[in-house]
Amino acid sequence: MIISVIFLAIILALVIYIVSIYNNLVTLFNRAYNAFSQIDVQLKRRYDLIPNLVTIAQKYLSHEENTLIKVTMARNNALNASSNANLKNAKSLQDLSEAQNSLNSALSNFNMVLENYPNLKANENLTQLSKELTHTENKIAFARQAYNDSVMHYNTARESFPANLIVQYFPKFRENLIMLEFEDKQEISKTPKVNF
Fold first, then answer.
1. Rounded Cα distance, 151 and 144, in Å
2. What is the pLDDT of residues 51-74, one digit of tens each?
3. The domain spanning residue 2 has which CATH number?
């Protein structure tokens, strides 16, 4: 009788332990999913600001139509990649990253063109939109960082013992989540040279 009570207590403790590991993985997965959703919210805001920026600039940049077309096309490609992005699909996340890099490049080129038009830079609406876009870019960077942190915590918990044994029985947790790559990752990793 005592042995069966001890055996049942051990089984119950084991079940409770497995359930707690499962619940921890669910929590970490949901945090990563939420962090990814926050990126999407900020990207949507960015996509909404860009057409307004282009509309204001069109009045002044009739000679730079190619630049405006590139920004618009890059925005549309990024919007499409964002709507197709899937947390567990490496290809869709790579496409999203590449589309964002193209959009960043087009916006950078657009900003360089704006430097040549002082009247346009003085436009109050354009200045306000540029500030909002910069603020949104900062929010995107923070959202990406939060997402990558969430993914790291999830993947670490998933790969740790004994969770790595338990995830084999739950298809939802079999694969690692994928971190988003930053376009400036290579630039960040370079050591700056200082000359005296």
1. 10
2. 988 888 887 777 778 888 999 999
3. 1.20.1440.20
